[in-house]
Amino acid sequence: MSSDVQTIQSVHRHVHKASKSLSPARVLATLALAAWGGLFWFLLLSDRVALYLSSRTAWVVPVGAVILSIAVIGRVFTLRVEHAEPLDRRAVAGIGLIMVPVVIVLALPPASLTSYAASRRSSFSSGGLAASAEDISSGELSLADVAGGLRSKEGMQALVARAGSDVTFTGFVTREPGQPADEFVLTRFMISCCVADALGVQVRVVGAPPGQLAEDQWVRVAGKMYPLGREVIVDASAVTVVPKPKRPYLNP
């Protein structure tokens, strides 16, 4: 009798196990997790993290890649369910929205913000970040120092006190309507968290080689720095074309 009961229980477990089927909802959700995990691994291995995140938040990519990979492995073992879990339109639409950033990043070529964005984004002088006057008043001046100086009265005073200092700035060329041929605006973006919060840092360069520089071309400018009103002017002694930096954005 006990042998018959065990046989019946074994058959019941086999049938119960065989009755499980793949859940379309779980499969789709797992694919979405896998897509985001794959995107993070892609950004990490292709060294494109700096095109989207600042150095402060870049840790999100490797951590996210590992966590999502573990999550996908765990989800694979739960794809089969006893009761059907059909997909509904709301679930499909929600997962579709989640997938949009993945598609955009993978479909578009890797590129940083250009002069087109510079004309449509706020300048750093109107942003919410600032450098201390002490940092500006000593040491080598950087574009981050200029950004901090333009943001506060004390910072601007510190820049004025260093008028005539030798500087070397790297950025890309932007031009304004009616600008003389030997002038251009050197631009670089600064991001605090990600590219969505990018603010432009700009200095006016005078004494540049006329007609030799194209818009969006990356250059290194050496010369003397002079604050004037609410802008900073660099009287260039040398303008050198350089490749776009591996990390095109500055971090405060």
Explain the overall architecture:
With 252 residues, the chain is α+β, with helices and mostly antiparallel strands. It folds into 2 domains: 2-107, no CATH class; 115-241, OB fold (Dihydrolipoamide Acetyltransferase, E2P) (Beta Barrel), CATH 2.40.50. Helix content is 40%, strand content 21%. The chain contains 8 helices and 7 strands, in the order H-E-H-H-E-H-H-H-H-H-E-E-E-E-E. The strands form 2 sheets. The chain has a 5-stranded mixed β-barrel with strand order 3-4-5-7-6. A two-stranded antiparallel ribbon has the order 1-2. A hairpin with an 8-residue loop joins strand 3 and strand 4. Helix 2 (24-45) runs antiparallel to helix 3 (60-76), helix 2 (24-45) packs parallel to helix 4 (89-107) and helix 7 (143-151) packs across helix 8 (153-161). The longest helix has 22 residues, at 24-45. The termini are far apart. The model has no long low-confidence stretch (mean pLDDT 84).
Secondary-structure map:
Elements: H1 2-18, E1 21-22, H2 24-45, H3 60-76, E2 80-81, H4 89-107, H5 115-118, H6 133-137, H7 143-151, H8 153-161, E3 165-174, E4 183-190, E5 199-206, E6 218-228, E7 231-241
Parallel strand pairs: 5-7
Antiparallel strand pairs: 1-2, 3-4, 3-6, 4-5, 6-7
Describe this protein with a few key phrases.
252 residues; alpha+beta; OB fold (Dihydrolipoamide Acetyltransferase, E2P); five-stranded mixed β-barrel; two-stranded antiparallel sheet; elongated
CATH fold label of the largest domain: OB fold (Dihydrolipoamide Acetyltransferase, E2P)
Sequence stretches where pLDDT stays below 50 over 5 or more residues: none
Give the quaternary arrangement of the chains.
Answer: single chain
Q: Give me the count of strands.
A: 7
CATH superfamily of the largest domain: Bacterial OB-fold
CATH class of the largest domain: Mainly Beta
Specify the structural class.
alpha+beta
Strand content: 15-25%
Instruction: List the secondary-structure elements in sequence, H or E.
Output: HEHHEHHHHHEEEEE
How far is it from the N-terminal to the C-terminal residue, by CA? 79 Å
Number of domains: 2
- What is the 3D form? elongated
Strand order of the largest sheet: 3-4-5-7-6
| Overall pLDDT confidence | 84
**Estimated radius of gyration:** 28 Å
Q: What proportion of the residues is helical, as a percent range? A: 40-55%
Instruction: Indicate the CATH architecture of the largest domain.
Output: Beta Barrel
Largest sheet: 5 strands, mixed, barrel
Q: Total helix count?
A: 8
